[in-house]
Amino acid sequence: MNKRTNHNCNLNIWRHLPDEVWDKVSELYKSMPGWIGYKDGIPYWFGQEEDDVYIAASVEPSGLSFFAQMNQRDWEVWITTFKSQATRVLGFEVGEPEDGFI
What we know:
Layout: E1 4-11, H1 19-31, E2 35-39, E3 42-45, E4 54-60, E5 63-71, H2 72-90
Antiparallel strand pairs: 1-5, 2-3, 3-4, 4-5
Helix pairs in contact: 1-2
């Protein structure tokens, strides 16, 4: 079954980090599968909220937040790839604060 569901994830990439970190995050965005660009300052992959499949990100007090609508397996592969690449590019382990990543 290829059912699309909603997903979200907060990562320990904090709003207060220096511009150099955010520049790297912006470049990472562009290298991820499905990148389509920014609309009104929001990065999107695959589509936008009105589409069947999309990923969007925003910077929140809780960290970098992703919101997605897609099938579970594709989401897991995509967000695992993002965490892995972010860890490599940023030089610290990237993960979800609720899982102990600070």
